[in-house]
Amino acid sequence: MRFLRLIYAEASTLTLRRLLGMAVLAGLSNAAVLALINAAASMPPETEQKTRLALMFVAVIVVYSISQHYIMVTASREIEQVIHRVRFRLVTALLACELRDLERIGRSRIFAGISQEIQVLSQSATTLVTSCQLAVLVFFATFYLIALSFTAFFLSVAFMGVAILLYFRKTAVVNRVLYDATQKELELHGVVTGVLDGFKEIKVNRARSRAIEQDIVHASMQASDFRVRAQNQLARNLVFVQNTFYLLLATMVFIVPVLSHTTSDIIVKTTTAVLFLVGPISGLVASVPIFATANTAASGILALETELLGAQGSVSAAGRTAPDLATFKTIRFDHVVFRHSDPSGEHPFVLGPVDLTLKAGETVFISGGNGSGKSTFLRLLTALYRPDEGTISLDGRPLDADTLESYRSLFSTVFSDYHLFRELYGVAPEAKDEIDELLETFEISSKTKLANGHFDTVDLSAGQRKRLALIVAVLERRPICVLDEWAADQDPVFRRKFYHEIIRALKERGITVVAVTHDDRYYDLADRLIRFEEGKLAVNEPERANA
Fold it and tell me: Are 393 and 399 in contact (CB under 8 A)?
């Protein structure tokens, strides 16, 4: 099973050996309880030997309690540490992968792997520990059964062997159905994520809302149908196991005396032993669907980790430790072409070829219609996308695996689909000293403030959130600031302030500004205008738009 292999590969070998030793001790003491009870039951009352057996019974219970407590606590702690290491590796691999790979894998699958499937493993930890202890108990109890009657033991093993073989064949069907159910739930998660991300668009379109509702209902019903099928099969398996135990008890009572010269006293003891094993074996059987779910989750996690690790080819080890860059002179695009992947293979969007040079200190405005390639160009400029053809050079040196991370450190960004963190991640402590001044400049000092290292609220209007995002970009103190339609959500008064005052202030700081904008009345404030049309560079001249 993938789940058990994952635990074995990640857990401490020394801890596993200690757990195995304590599990053996717990199993022996549990089996000893059965032997002591049977021995005491066959003795007359008020005998010295029975008193000794009572004292031994107490000692065995103490040993069992100590060993069982150690197993539960230590195993839970070790498994949680394993889960932490796996989760940490997934997050590290996620942060190291490229945007294009993230878009290909999908947010729903990544979120399910790091959160939902990891949680399944954590919830299965107690069941794993309990099942291992029950398995050890069953193992030692069978030896006691051998001591009572080899015939009873042989029939029990043969009977249970056939029953277990049939049970696991039935379980294979359950595993397939559970896997299908998990895939359907991932599809449902993706639809629900779309609802949360596009809630405003849904609320203003009744037809869209109804269509999405039908899609969610359909996905939910499919997931439920698979779960019901799995539970139906599990119920059949449970009934099968219960009937198996009843038949096994009948075998002990009716068949064992016929096949061997076994006294009634031994028959009673073997029947008691079988009854004693009913609980542990039932527990093991009941854990099978939990293990099946955990195994499916482990398979998903390992597959996700493999895919994330396979997406880490753009940056070398040296590149990850390369220092950040504080200055640059030129960034040059030479015949750069980028093709968006299209699953259908029909008419994929192509940007380029693009040939241009960006100089330090420039204020560059980018314009173009929807779908013209502006946002794709920004992703290429910031190295979030890598060109399919052509080269991007920094100060005459083409970007490669060793320079990619350093190149990205040139940029602070506010993309159109930006995310505003409450924490000031990646901002130097001394830069935070100017936060109050910037909040005043951007006219939101009454809306939010920095407290204990984070903003007390980011629940602001769209325009105010963008102002706060630009403040954070300024605090990062990068030489290039990339803005994607930043002014689109600003009121007319602050929009005018942005173009006439804030951009000039950024320029005075020595920051190169690259801004996507449709405000043609302000084009003359830029040092250069770049216009895209259908993925092609239509204007790339160091001119003012109104010249």
Answer: yes
As a whole number of angstroms, the distance between CA 283 and CA 303 comes to 30
Question: Long-range contacts: 457-462, Cβ < 8 Å, 24+?
Answer: 458/420, 458/422, 461/489, 462/489
Banded pLDDT at 105 (limits 50, 70, 90): confident
Which of 472, 411, 481 has its CA nearest to residue 442? 472
Other CB atoms closer than 10 Å to residue 56's CB: what's the count?
16
Torsion of the alpha carbons at 483, 485, 491 and 495, rounded to the nearest 10: 50
Residues listed for the chain: 547
3-state DSSP: the chain helix, strand, coil percent, rounded to 5? Answer: 65, 10, 20
Domain count, the chain: 2
Query: What distance in Å separates the CA atoms of residue 256 and residue 152, rounded to the nearest whole number?
Result: 6
Q: Are 304 and 113 in contact (CB under 8 A)?
A: yes
Same domain, yes or no: 515 and 394: yes
Whether a cis peptide bond, with omega within 30° of 0, leads into 289 is no
pLDDT digits (tens, 9 = 90+) for 448-493: 998 887 888 888 898 999 999 999 999 999 999 999 999 988 999 9
Where do we find the tokens 């339609």? Answer: 485
E strand intervals along 135-187: none
Count other Cβ atoms within 10 Å, centred on residue 200: 8
| Largest interatomic CA distance in the chain | 115
Instruction: For 320-370, write each residue's pLDDT tens digit.
Output: 777 888 899 999 999 999 998 766 556 678 998 999 999 999 999 999 888
d(CA 158, CA 247): 13
Q: Is the dihedral of CA 109, 110, 114, 115 positive or negative?
A: negative
Cα separation, 231 vs 292, in Å, equals 12
What is the rounded distance in angstroms from the CA atom of residue 221 to the CA atom of residue 209? 18
Do both 408 and 483 map to the same domain?
A: yes
Sheet harboring 411-414: ordered strands across?
411-414, 480-484, 512-516, 363-368, 528-533, 536-541
Residues 290 and 343 in one domain: no
Q: Strands 397-398 and 389-394: what pairing?
A: antiparallel
Domain extent at residue 493: 320-541
Asked if 540 and 530 count as a contact pair (C-beta separation under 8 A), the reply is yes
Please give the Cα distance from 1 to 291 (Å, whole number).
9
Residue 157, domain CATH: 1.20.1560.10
